[in-house]
Design a protein that fits this description.
0% strand; mainly alpha; Muramoyl-pentapeptide Carboxypeptidase, domain 1
């Protein structure tokens, strides 16, 4: 009869961390087009305050952030491209 041995507690945590880091690196493939991640975080926070974004305020230009920016751009008569531009920042009062 085979014994089932549970992994050490740290092993599970490391496996979960590695999965998250892998997903994080996939999302980071979208470069920031304006400023640093702090600017992206400010945009995320403003979009969240306005009800356009409900994800993490992490400064990462992932698909959820780009979609929220696109929705905001569409409702504010901006060119809809889902990127952080000087016009977007000005319209949001972040410039």
């Amino acid at each position: 009869m085979e014994r089932c041995v549970a992994p050490k507690a740290g092993t599970i945590v490391r496996m979960q961390r590695n999965r998250l880091l892998s997903r994080h690196s996939q999302l980071r493939k979208q470069p920031l087009l304006w400023g640093e991640s702090a600017t992206a975080a400010q945009v995320q926070e403003r979009l969240a305050d306005l009800g356009y974004y409900d994800g993490l305020i992490d400064g990462i230009m992932g698909p959820q952030t780009r979609a929220a920016i696109g929705t905001y751009e569409g409702t504010h008569n901006l060119v809809v491209d889902g990127t952080i531009s000087t016009r977007l920042l000005a319209r949001m009062g972040l410039s």
